[in-house]
Each structure stands twice: as C-alpha cells, then as structure tokens.
Amino acid sequence: MVEAAEAQVLEALVAKLKEDPSLIYDPKLAVFKDFILSWGAKVPEAKPQPKPQAKAPEPEPAKVEEEEEEEEPEEPEDPDPDRLEKDPEPYPSPGPAGELDLTDDQLNKQGELKQAAAEALEDGDLAKAVEKMTQAFEIGNVSAMMYTQHWRCSASLGKTSRQFHGP
C-alpha cells in the first residue's frame, strides 16, 4: 500500500515532468526512467543542452559616492501563536549563586522539597511542583537537573524561562 505522503511526492514529480519532460534525463531519475521504459512507455528524446556562452567581463561602473540611505525599520512580524507570553514580575529567586557548603539539615530539606515536587508532578499538579522546586532552589546548589525539571513544569503551565534570566 502506498502512503498518502508518498503519493503526493509522486504526483509532484509527474507534474514537474509534464512541465519539462527533459527532466527525465536527470541522473537522479534514472531508476524512474528505467522503470517506466520497462513498462513500454515512451520518453521524449533528449534535447541537446545549449552551451553556456562565455560572457565578456563587464566593466565596473565608476564608483559614485552615494549618500547612505536610512534603513526603514522592519515591520514587526505577526505574533507567533505558539509563543509563550512574558511572565509578570516578580520572578522567583534562582537561589544563592555559586557552590555552597550545605548543612545536613539543608540537604535534607532540599531533598524533601524535590521529593514533594516529584510527587506533585506524578499527581499532575504542575503548579505545586513548580512551587516546591522554587523552594528547593532557594536553599542553594541548584543542579542542571533541577533547572530542567522546573523549566518543564513551568513551560507546561505556559510560563516562560525569563523567570531566571530577568526581563
């Protein structure tokens, strides 16, 4: 059975060949040409390709200093319907910068918050998962995995990644 996409590609090829039958002699279409010939079809004779004429080099026009034209500002494109809107401020804190020596209590608290975020995610409560991940960020030593998980939940809620990068 032929897939619809394959049939469309074949239809497009046939349309091009109807417009310019000489395309059948393109080496990329050799298999196709051999196939239709094996069924007894006739293909038009190859027309000799006109030889490109060597052009005499054109003299360079005299350089005239032109006043620089002011470029018109580009018109803004239509907004992308899939683009997420900018989140309103205030943005959540990304947590302390740099590597910190966390205490056992801080590590335990961060682990509990990450676990609570994972459970909220399993329950489908994305807002709670984002909240718990944000609280875990505030403790410090945020890993790439934590940022990734937070971003995935935020994006699913329709929030942008600007919350950690500023406006």
Automatic annotation (TrEMBL):
The keyword Transmembrane helix does not apply. InterPro entries: Hip_N. Keywords: Repeat, TPR repeat. Residues 65-80 have a biased composition (Acidic residues). Residues 44-116 are annotated as: Disordered. Residues 5-44 form the Hsp70-interacting protein N-terminal domain. This is Hsp70-interacting protein N-terminal domain-containing protein. It comes from Durusdinium trenchii. The lineage of its organism: Eukaryota, Sar, Alveolata, Dinophyceae, Suessiales.
